[in-house]
Amino acid sequence: MDAIVVEDLSKHFRVFRGREDTLKGAFARFFYSRVRPEEFWALRDVSFSVAQGETFGIIGENGSGKSTLLKILCGILKPDQGRVQIQGRMAALLELGAGFHPDLTGRENIYLNGSLLGFSKSQIDRCFGEIVSFAELESFIDTPIKHYSSGMYVRLGFAIAVNVDPDVLLIDEVLAVGDESFQHKCYERLQDFKRRGKTFILVTHDLGAVERFCTQAMLLRDGRVVTSGPSRKAVDIYRGHVAEKEEGALTEAASKVEEIASNRWGTQEVEIVSVTFQDANGEVRHRFKTGESIVIRIAYNAKVQIDDPVFGIAIHRSDGVHVTGINTALDGLCFAPLQGEGLVECQLENASLNVGSYLLSAATHDREERRAYDYHDRQYPFEVASNGGPTFSGLLSIAHRWRLS
Question: Given Cys at both, which of 86, 152, 221, 354 links 148, Cβ 3.0 to 4.6 Å?
Answer without folding.
Answer: 152
